[in-house]
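We modelled the chain as a single entity of 194 amino acids. Its sequence is:
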Amino acid sequence: MKIINNVKVKSLSKNGKRRKILWVLKISLLAFSLSLLLSFFSQVVLKKSNAFLAIILLCVFMIFNVLSDMIGLAITSCQIDEVKKERENNKLKEPIYIKCLHLIKNADKVSSILCDVVGDICGILCGVSATILTNIIVSNNSLISLYIFVGAIVSSIIAGLTVLFKAIAKNFAVKNSLRIVKKISILSLIFSNK
């Protein structure tokens, strides 16, 4: 322990520093792999599709973007004391309680995966979908000015809707963080058992 300005600060050992560096490398590799896979998938599917399918895929990416951000924020803003109080009042079963604590104690990693990796990749894929949707809409017209105009309109609509839904979802996440963490814990237990 180091003392800085009369405050005890835990110093990282070499092993702790290695773990942090390894975590950053893992998360970067995960982001790269997922982005590559999903970009490839969306471009292959969208290039051979019509506007309806492109809009559906765009909506799916937007929903994942908003939901992952909401869940990441809920886990980050949930307090351990709230979970302990639920357990003391016998409102939480032991496995769910343990999973809730695990999520909250690892909130930095969980929110990094959900908000940064999943959310940001879905945001990028919304942009890819918007570009391909613009190509589909303007495919019969070679006017560059029309392409720029339609592209700007499509991108603006997507950006506006994303910001709107994220604002609503973040407000919901902060007010209902414990409920969301409990639901995610239950889902996590169901999938880990299967």
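As a brief sanity check on the tokenised model: Strands lie at 2-4, 7-9. Helices lie at 14-47, 51-77, 80-88, 94-105, 107-137, 144-175, 177-193.
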